[in-house]
Amino acid sequence: MGGDNRGGGRKRALLLGALLLAILIVAALLLSQCGSDDPDESGASGSGTTSTSSSGRSSASSSSAGATAGSSGAAAAAGSGQIVTADGRSVLDLVAQADPAAALGALAGQPVTGTGVRVLSVPADEGFWVGTSDQQRVWVQLTGEVGESPYQVTEGDTVDFEGTVVAHDAAFAAGVGVDDAEGAGQLTSQGSHLEVAKSAVALSR
Length: 205
What we know:
There is one protein chain. The protein starts with a helix and ends with a strand. The protein has a five-stranded mixed β-barrel with strand order 2-3-4-6-5. A hairpin with a 5-residue loop joins strand 3 and strand 4. The chain folds into two domains: 1-74; 82-203, CATH 2.40.50. The chain contains five helices and six strands. By secondary structure, it is an alpha+beta fold.
């Protein structure tokens, strides 16, 4: 009987020892998995942050590029410039109408403001064509004493000015030195031009 009890006790001790060892092994495995998961999660989190930041930078860059393109497009559109009356009518739109003489004639004596207008040609010492094309242009006749202009107007310049719409007769083109090759016929058919003081013309900035 004593031998059986001792044998049973040893078996129980071995079983308990094996059970404890198994528990320790399982606990060690769980701890090792938790330890390995943390770096992975941290790495994944870090990677996600980097990716988001990169995406944010890319989006910002794209937005910036879009804004720059938009600005460039607006600048190109503004490059053709505008000449408007006090009530906002476009002189360049009027000269492009079927009867520019009537359209411009209705503006006689009215002040106009030119902003960022392209100088298309300078065929005379005291005058030049401004506008967007040979079909949509108006003559600017300078007035004032020699030396009053702050700079010499040159073809291709973009200028700002303030002036007045003035009607003219058929002899005007020849009188200011514009011949047929330089648009005398068109100037005569328009029946009006813009008179601008030399001191009121400036190179656009």
